[in-house]
Design brief:
By secondary structure, the chain is of the alpha+beta class. Helix content is 68%, strand content 7%. The chain is elongated and about 65 Å long. The chain starts with a helix and ends with a helix.
Length: 295
């Protein structure tokens, strides 16, 4: 567990470095193509990357919660959920996160933040209504494991950084399409470089999303195992997954940018031939099988 926490902290820095590299490459080729100051455009891209990384680190959780339409609750507003979270946090040995509800009848949840001291847990109204006590406890234990393992830092950062790469590449392509400028240096080598740069910039949103998908789905299995260890009742989490699979209700207000944060895919069932390639979560049946092998 401690090795996983260390690895997730390390992956956060590697993730930031990868996005910086992609953004600075966009800045370089932007300068090359426009015939302007390479250093200037690279510096601009670097500054934007720093600003957005800081925004993601310090405010990414707020952005994710707003995108989900989540609203905070107090102990008086929902004592049942509050006590479930409080008891599991005591058992897990972590500070209690802020608790939010999402006004959606689909069954889902997510945790976000930069560390256990600055974390939030969001649950849909549907998951609270439709799951039994031990099932909901399993889901909450899973999400608290993401908090303890620092998965939340990785998940929160990627929302901002993937979006920034997409915006920068879109700005470049539009400026190139409408400027009509041609650089006199576009000889053989220059032309090849610019063609390579244009291909990079077109593909950069895909590259950014591949980086996002490269954040191992094993963290979901780890959180399942950690949650089952916390509750000492793997069957509760397995039954919750079965109910969610049968219900299969997609969420109403969801973005691709935040889909990887959720307990299960917020889009409902994914075709099997696409699931392994592009899904942000392991198949539910595999998670259920893994949990029942521990009993």
């Amino acid at each position: 567990m401690y090795n996983q926490i260390t690895a997730n902290k390390r992956k956060s820095w590697v993730l930031i470095a990868l996005f910086f590299a992609v953004l600075i490459a966009i800045g370089y080729f932007w300068g090359l193509w426009s015939g302007g100051d390479y250093a200037g455009t690279m510096t601009f891209a670097g500054v934007i990357a720093i600003i957005m990384a800081l925004v993601g680190y310090y405010s990414g959780d707020t952005i994710a919660l707003k995108m989900a339409g989540a609203y905070p609750i107090t102990h008086e507003q929902n004592q049942y959920v509050w006590h479930l979270v409080e008891n599991l946090c005591i058992a897990q040995g972590i500070p209690m996160p802020k608790i939010y509800l999402i006004p959606d009848q689909a069954m889902n949840a997510f945790a976000t933040g930069r560390d256990p001291q600055h974390s939030s847990l969001a649950l849909t109204e549907g998951i609270i209504k439709k799951l039994e006590n031990e099932e909901l406890e399993g889901v909450i234990a899973h999400e608290l494991s993401h908090i303890k393992n620092y998965d939340i830092r990785l998940g929160t950062l990627v929302i901002i950084l993937v979006g920034m790469v997409s915006i920068m590449s879109n700005i470049f392509i539009r400026s190139r399409m409408f400027s009509g400028r041609r650089d006199s240096r576009e000889g053989n080598i220059g032309g090849i470089l610019m063609l390579a740069g244009f291909i990079l910039i077109i593909l950069s949103p895909l590259i950014a999303n591949l980086i996002k998908l490269a954040i191992s789905r094993k963290r979901e299995f780890l959180a399942d195992a950690s949650g089952a260890l916390l509750t000492r009742y793997p069957e509760g989490l397995a039954k919750a997954l079965e109910k969610i699979q049968r219900d299969n209700t997609p969420m109403q207000n969801i973005s691709e940018a935040t889909a990887h944060l959720y307990f299960t895919s917020p889009f409902g069932a994914v075709p099997k031939f696409l699931g392994k390639l592009f899904a942000t979560h392991p198949p539910i049946e595999e998670r259920i099988k893994a949990l029942r092998q521990t009993t």
